[in-house]
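seq:
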Amino acid sequence: MRVGFFLSNKGGSPLEVGLRRGLAHLGHCVEDVHRGTGYDLILVFNQCAHTTDYAYPEFPKGSTPMAFVDTAEYGYFKRLSDVIENFKTAFSEGSKNHDTKNHHQQTRLQQFMEGKSFPYFLREHFKQVTFPACYYPIDYPLYLHSECRDRPNREEYLRRKLDLFVSWGASHPWRINITKALRECPARSEISIIEENGHVRIHQPTYLQKTRSAKCSVSFDGYGSGSFRVTEVVVRCLLLIGPMSIRLREPLIDGVHCVQYDVTSNGRDFISTNIKDKLKEALDDQERSFRIHEAGYNHCMEHYTETATARYVLATVASHDWSKPTPLTF
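struct:
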């Protein structure tokens, strides 16, 4: 199969790069659309960027089947239950108040695709929103996949001297309260908050090394947490994960692939969490923690590699009903 990639800007997100690699691993020819014609499939990307100057110069024309891959993120304020209507509006119009969703891009897409049929892969697929059947959740494949190939080792895991490693930004206000609770735990921990004391974002190799050196790490739904950050942690240590509003294409199961902690609220404000109890249980029974970590690793290596992600996209495209136009509004 010859697959053309049509990008909204130069460079690539981990999803675009991973799909390229995965399709090549499966033996398909992959190239940028402008380099040739005669494709069996064109993947049109809205790439995640923190600028607003990545508009498409011209959408590809012709009868070649196309699938749209939306890699943009939404801010936490669009994930709360009382602003779902605002989220729907932002999705259909293009966000005007978050720099990773380009209003111009969404307008161009609607003008070009109106009345056409195409599968729409949406990276942040909200559980609270009922999307039409032509919208499919997609996540980043394992980033730096070659660094993930060492299987979990029980003896090495039990020898790890760091109980907990956490690195995140306070992009969601509840993270501040969860961080406070974690700092009250009698665990050997390293907690790095990007906005605190001049801390800057940890470089990717360091982040991966730190998660592999700890027995546990923590994720909470916020920028990036509903995608590659989850799988990055799961393949390296035990993941404690908070409530997620993002729908993963192959969800992690509590107690099987990860450990889920609860957060209670009054609808908007944080009230409490049981994360201290969940962390204590994990550290008190490290044999069980390792088994969960190992199962999570196996799950991700089955479903979230670059090749597995490429197979998912191709299978979705193959089963798509091309006779029904894809709605761009709710």
